[in-house]
Amino acid sequence: MNNSMDPRRPDREIRYRPSVVNNQVQSGDDATPDYMNILGMIFSMCGLMMRLKWCAWVALYCSCISFANSRVSDDTKQILSSFMLSISAVVMSYLQNPQPMTPPWANAMQ
User: Fold this and answer.
1) What is the rounded CA–CA span in Å between residue 97 and residue 85?
2) Any domain includes 77
3) What global pTM score does this model have?
């Protein structure tokens, strides 16, 4: 009696198969965290070496994006080191020159 009341239909079940595009299975691997991590490190080094505050802030922004888009299985040490490098770039740039940041295009107008 219980089987007659069961709304499921096993003859209508279809097994899931991942979609195939150009004869390759989509893996869903997003490279955004890796690119942002590399950009964050490049901008951090530019902010530290050239004392550009806007580079340091862009590095911090890229590191935040990398952290937000990372997966649990990603290497957390590299993401954390990029984040700390960008924070140190911001801190060091303001320790060297505590004046407020002026955007690069503001100097061209004068």
Assistant:
1) 18
2) yes
3) 0.68
